[in-house]
TrEMBL record, chain A:
It comes from Shinella yambaruensis. The chain crosses the membrane at residues 31-53, 60-86, 141-158, 188-209, 267-283. PANTHER family: ABC TRANSPORTER PERMEASE PROTEIN, SUGAR ABC TRANSPORTER INTEGRAL MEMBRANE PROTEIN-RELATED. This is ABC transporter permease. It is found in: Cell membrane. Its main location: membrane. Pfam families: BPD_transp_2. It is a multi-pass membrane protein. Keywords: Cell membrane, Membrane, Transmembrane, Transmembrane helix. InterPro entries: ABC_transp_permease (IPR001851).
From TrEMBL, chain B:
The keyword Signal applies. Keywords: Signal. It holds the Pfam family Bmp. It comes from Shinella yambaruensis. CDD domains: PBP1_BMP-like. Residues 1-23 form the signal peptide. Residues 26-307 form the ABC transporter substrate-binding protein PnrA-like domain. This is BMP family ABC transporter substrate-binding protein. The lineage of its organism: Bacteria, Pseudomonadati, Pseudomonadota, Alphaproteobacteria, Hyphomicrobiales.
Amino acid sequence: MGIIEAILLTVITAATPLVLASLGELVSERAGVLNLGVEGMMVMGAVLAFAVTQATGSPYIGVLAGIACGALFSLLFGFLTLTLVANQVATGLALTILGLGISGQIGEPYVGMSGIKLQPIAIPLLSDIPFFGPLFFKQDIIFYLSIALVFGVNWFLFRSRAGLKVRAIGDSHASAHALGIHVIRTRYLAVMFGGACAGLAGAQLSLVYTPQWVENMSAGRGWIALALVVFASWRPWRLLAGGYLFGAVSISQLHAQALGIGIPSQFLSALPYIATVVVLILISHNRRMTLINTPASLGKPFVPDR
Amino acid sequence: MKKIILALATSAAVLGFAAAASAQDKTKICFIYVGSKTDGGWTQAHDIGRQALQDHFGDKIETPFLENVPEGPDAERAIERMARSGCALVFTTSFGFMDATVKVAAKFPDVKFEHATGFKSAENVATYNARFYEGRYIQGLIAAKISEKGVAGYIASFPIPEVVMGINSFVHGAQSINPDFKVKVIWANTWFDPGKEADAAKALIDQGVDILTQHTDTTAPMQVASERGIKAFGQASDMIAAGPNTQLTAIVDTWGAYYIKRTQAVLDGTWKSEQVWDGLKDGILTMAPYTNMPDDVKKLAEEAEAKIRSGELHPFTGPIKKQDGSDWLADGAVSDDGTLLGMNFYIAGVDDQLPK
């Protein structure tokens, strides 16, 4: 295995949870709901996926548990912000803190336990292609899912009727409501999709990335995912590119250090974030494009008239 | 109705008094943790020490603790809250709590404070630390014997003296066996991020190291090493579960004995501010069993450990030059503790640039 191939493999592992978590958040925000609880949902997905894998011996059931846990946990956010019309920012932050706390409690017996790794599935023929085969066609199910979901979400949002409704709600919930679209119901589904994706991202952390459970193991990835959504200006393809760019920068800085390139390591560690800021500046330079892409009713509560 | 409320109020008051009274019987020994007590590394080691302390004194003491206290201004509030709640002795268990501890201690002259791994003290602030570099020297010896390529990977956290000292000691130990031994260092700039630590481990292995050591807190690097079939050293806790066929040994922090000793001093009224820096001989750190290595290497490690314990061997014994070529220790000279505790330079032979 060449060094380039080895680096790219690591990049894929590092980028996948970011892509998944931010993709879920993208859908939620497209429907106009800002859920800052990504970190909490992710870490809940991670602990449940790990615990269920330990209990059943099957990481696949673990993955399902992670997804279900993320979706259920996001329902709590949905109930508070959509039904009780609580402030989305505050509720999202609370969800993160709650998730970190509860996951620590649930995970206590699992600390230090060696996990079961989700094994890669080689796709016949394709995985034999030199270089690209092992990279893209000999991966675990979560990687395949992440790519499929980017395709799927892109198609759904911009090519399907239901996706058009989601975007309509995100842009003006009052108008969408007047047109007879179920604003609250759709938002519930979008929030749950976001939760499920974050849960899946968490499962990737505790079953693929580092097959173990340690408290707070998401270590801020949920926040990066949130930034990626803005970075991608709410577009799935850009989000995929952004996730991989972020992964690539953070991995290559480690390699640069090991090679002994004389750049201060603090600067190298900050590189991924500097890259994010630069891209954000470039994007926001064009005000009109930003306005067109940003869901106009993002974060605003909606109370249907009865 | 009024009667019920009155009864409730009285019983509540009585309960309150009872609680207060029982609390006063017990001496409060408090702990501030930077991480969670189940982090599997640094903080867990301190919490095991706290439990040993509680078991030792039983009903005589209480050992409340605060977890996940971030370093910085929040730490000051947390420590002050502890001091105000009637603690007799407060252990602040992370380097980053240093300034906050000294600041709060000035406001509470009657409360005793002990700060781990720092270098600032006061009338009522003692410092305590373990000579982890002794363990790292032994790891260096083992690495030089085991590694076929003669290159080790070192996952470092932050460029503070504690970590720099560890790298120097490891390299010095390894080069005493194989003068051409190299070490590749990656600064993760975090104590705790399993994903990043695993990525760093992968990067090092991809670049050809065949032995790994870490100064970060999770078992992720051990797991990667195990997956890639190379050997590694554990950190802070025995990490053998994460790599039964991988771990050579680990530096295990065992704070319990120290906590018991200092609490006894508080109970006896003999507590004094000291700068304690204990080593292998005092049992504040121990080496996990030497595993996954040939018998002759194991013997070498055990002998070195015995010599360090007896004081016959000091890991930093000259001749040692600094990385820039200037002299540091003459032949046979031993480093003083002050230089080690403020170590901000690499010794000759370290193939990395120290971040400033």
